[in-house]
Amino acid sequence: DRAYMRARVFSNTALREQLERLLHPMIRAEMRERTAQLIVEGAPYVVLAVPLLVESGNWSDYADRILLIDCSEATQLARVGTRAGIGEMTARQIIGAQATRRERLAVADDVLLNEAPLEQIDRKVDRLHQAYLRFAAIKRSRETL
User: Fold this and answer.
1) pLDDT value of residue 107
2) By three-state DSSP, how is residue 125 classified?
3) Quick check: 136 and 47 in contact, CB under 8 A?
4) How is the chain split among helix, strand and coil, in percent rounded to 5?
5) Is 54 exposed, middle or buried (0-12, 13-18, 19+ CB in 10 A)?
6) Which residues, including other chains, have CB under 8 Å from residue 39's CB and lie 6 or more apart?
7) For the segment 121-141, what is each residue's pLDDT rounded down to a tens digit?
8) How far apart, in whole angstroms, are the C-alpha atoms of residue 63 and residue 8?
9) Which of 49, 83, 102, 118 is the most buried (most CB within 10 A)?
10) What are phi and psi of 67, to 5 degrees?
11) Model confidence over 5-59: pLDDT tens digits?
12) What pLDDT, on a 0 to 100 scale, did the predictor assign at position 134?
Protein backbone atom coordinates (compact mmCIF):
# COMPACT_ATOMS: atom_id res chain seq x y z
CA ASP A 1 0.00 0.00 0.00
CA ARG A 2 2.11 2.85 -1.34
CA ALA A 3 -0.13 5.62 -0.03
CA TYR A 4 -0.02 4.22 3.51
CA MET A 5 3.75 3.70 3.38
CA ARG A 6 4.32 7.18 1.90
CA ALA A 7 2.24 8.79 4.65
CA ARG A 8 4.16 6.89 7.34
CA VAL A 9 7.72 7.40 6.14
CA PHE A 10 7.42 11.03 5.11
CA SER A 11 5.89 12.03 8.42
CA ASN A 12 8.41 10.07 10.51
CA THR A 13 12.12 10.70 9.82
CA ALA A 14 13.32 7.77 11.93
CA LEU A 15 11.01 5.36 10.12
CA ARG A 16 12.11 6.71 6.71
CA GLU A 17 15.77 6.34 7.66
CA GLN A 18 15.14 2.78 8.87
CA LEU A 19 13.47 1.93 5.56
CA GLU A 20 16.34 3.50 3.61
CA ARG A 21 18.94 1.55 5.64
CA LEU A 22 17.09 -1.61 4.69
CA LEU A 23 16.44 -0.84 1.02
CA HIS A 24 19.47 1.14 -0.17
CA PRO A 25 22.06 -1.66 0.22
CA MET A 26 19.78 -4.07 -1.65
CA ILE A 27 19.16 -1.53 -4.40
CA ARG A 28 22.90 -0.81 -4.74
CA ALA A 29 23.72 -4.52 -4.96
CA GLU A 30 21.11 -5.02 -7.68
CA MET A 31 22.39 -2.00 -9.60
CA ARG A 32 25.98 -3.28 -9.43
CA GLU A 33 24.88 -6.69 -10.66
CA ARG A 34 22.86 -5.28 -13.56
CA THR A 35 25.62 -2.84 -14.48
CA ALA A 36 28.21 -5.63 -14.58
CA GLN A 37 25.89 -7.68 -16.79
CA LEU A 38 25.35 -4.80 -19.21
CA ILE A 39 29.09 -4.17 -19.46
CA VAL A 40 29.72 -7.86 -20.17
CA GLU A 41 27.06 -7.64 -22.89
CA GLY A 42 28.97 -4.76 -24.50
CA ALA A 43 27.12 -1.64 -23.38
CA PRO A 44 29.44 1.33 -23.97
CA TYR A 45 28.18 2.94 -20.77
CA VAL A 46 25.41 2.50 -18.26
CA VAL A 47 23.06 5.13 -16.87
CA LEU A 48 21.89 4.54 -13.30
CA ALA A 49 18.73 6.34 -12.25
CA VAL A 50 19.28 7.22 -8.58
CA PRO A 51 16.51 9.51 -7.31
CA LEU A 52 18.13 9.85 -3.87
CA LEU A 53 21.74 9.96 -5.04
CA VAL A 54 22.85 12.71 -2.65
CA GLU A 55 20.90 11.29 0.28
CA SER A 56 21.93 7.67 -0.21
CA GLY A 57 25.66 8.07 0.12
CA ASN A 58 28.84 8.41 -1.90
CA TRP A 59 28.27 7.37 -5.50
CA SER A 60 31.53 8.92 -6.71
CA ASP A 61 33.26 5.57 -6.08
CA TYR A 62 30.84 3.90 -8.44
CA ALA A 63 29.88 6.47 -11.06
CA ASP A 64 32.27 8.21 -13.42
CA ARG A 65 29.89 11.09 -13.99
CA ILE A 66 26.76 12.42 -12.35
CA LEU A 67 23.97 13.71 -14.60
CA LEU A 68 21.32 15.73 -12.82
CA ILE A 69 17.91 16.00 -14.44
CA ASP A 70 16.94 19.35 -12.96
CA CYS A 71 13.86 21.54 -12.72
CA SER A 72 12.77 24.45 -10.58
CA GLU A 73 11.40 23.76 -7.11
CA ALA A 74 7.97 24.99 -8.24
CA THR A 75 7.96 22.48 -11.11
CA GLN A 76 9.17 19.74 -8.77
CA LEU A 77 6.32 20.46 -6.35
CA ALA A 78 3.77 20.50 -9.16
CA ARG A 79 5.06 17.19 -10.56
CA VAL A 80 5.09 15.44 -7.19
CA GLY A 81 1.60 16.77 -6.56
CA THR A 82 0.27 15.22 -9.76
CA ARG A 83 0.93 11.69 -8.48
CA ALA A 84 -2.20 9.81 -7.49
CA GLY A 85 -3.24 10.48 -3.92
CA ILE A 86 -0.58 13.05 -3.11
CA GLY A 87 -1.76 16.39 -1.80
CA GLU A 88 0.33 19.53 -1.45
CA MET A 89 1.28 18.82 2.17
CA THR A 90 2.56 15.32 1.35
CA ALA A 91 4.35 16.65 -1.72
CA ARG A 92 6.12 19.23 0.45
CA GLN A 93 7.06 16.50 2.97
CA ILE A 94 8.53 14.36 0.19
CA ILE A 95 10.53 17.25 -1.23
CA GLY A 96 11.58 18.36 2.25
CA ALA A 97 13.02 14.90 2.94
CA GLN A 98 15.25 15.16 -0.13
CA ALA A 99 18.49 16.99 -0.80
CA THR A 100 18.04 20.58 -1.85
CA ARG A 101 18.40 21.64 -5.45
CA ARG A 102 21.65 23.38 -4.52
CA GLU A 103 23.01 20.16 -2.96
CA ARG A 104 22.09 18.16 -6.07
CA LEU A 105 23.64 20.74 -8.40
CA ALA A 106 26.84 20.69 -6.33
CA VAL A 107 27.49 17.01 -7.09
CA ALA A 108 26.50 17.10 -10.77
CA ASP A 109 29.02 16.88 -13.58
CA ASP A 110 26.28 17.46 -16.15
CA VAL A 111 22.87 19.09 -15.83
CA LEU A 112 19.86 18.57 -18.07
CA LEU A 113 17.13 21.15 -17.47
CA ASN A 114 13.84 19.31 -17.70
CA GLU A 115 11.75 22.42 -18.33
CA ALA A 116 13.08 23.37 -21.72
CA PRO A 117 11.14 22.65 -24.89
CA LEU A 118 11.45 18.99 -25.91
CA GLU A 119 13.54 19.83 -28.98
CA GLN A 120 16.16 21.46 -26.76
CA ILE A 121 16.11 18.53 -24.35
CA ASP A 122 16.51 16.08 -27.25
CA ARG A 123 19.53 18.02 -28.58
CA LYS A 124 21.12 18.12 -25.14
CA VAL A 125 20.53 14.37 -24.65
CA ASP A 126 22.18 13.70 -28.02
CA ARG A 127 25.20 15.84 -27.04
CA LEU A 128 25.45 14.09 -23.66
CA HIS A 129 25.23 10.66 -25.33
CA GLN A 130 28.09 11.55 -27.68
CA ALA A 131 30.15 12.89 -24.78
CA TYR A 132 29.50 9.75 -22.72
CA LEU A 133 30.55 7.55 -25.65
CA ARG A 134 33.82 9.52 -25.79
CA PHE A 135 34.32 9.26 -22.00
CA ALA A 136 33.70 5.51 -22.16
CA ALA A 137 36.17 5.06 -25.03
CA ILE A 138 38.85 7.00 -23.15
CA LYS A 139 38.23 4.96 -20.01
CA ARG A 140 38.46 1.68 -21.93
CA SER A 141 41.70 2.77 -23.59
CA ARG A 142 43.22 3.67 -20.19
CA GLU A 143 42.15 0.33 -18.72
CA THR A 144 43.90 -1.58 -21.53
CA LEU A 145 47.22 0.23 -21.01
Assistant:
1) 92
2) helix
3) no
4) 60, 5, 35
5) buried
6) 46
7) 999 999 999 999 999 999 888
8) 32
9) 83
10) -105, 125
11) 888 888 888 998 899 889 888 988 999 999 999 999 999 999 998 888 888 777 7
12) 96
Q: Which amino acid is at 114?
A: N
Nearest-CA neighbor of 68 among 99, 40, 94, 45? 99
Cα(58)–Cα(38) distance, rounded to whole angstroms?
A: 22
What is the structure's pLDDT at 81? 77
Using an 8 Å Cβ cutoff, are 64 and 139 in contact?
yes
Q: Which residue in 26, 48, 24, 25 sits closest to 36, CA to CA?
A: 48
Query: What's the CA gap between 41 and 75, in Å, rounded?
Result: 38
Distance CA 5, CA 69 (A): 26
Rounded to two decimals, the pTM is 0.80
Q: What is the chain's Cα-based Rg?
A: 18
Is the separation of the CB atoms in 50 and 56 below 8 Å? Answer: yes
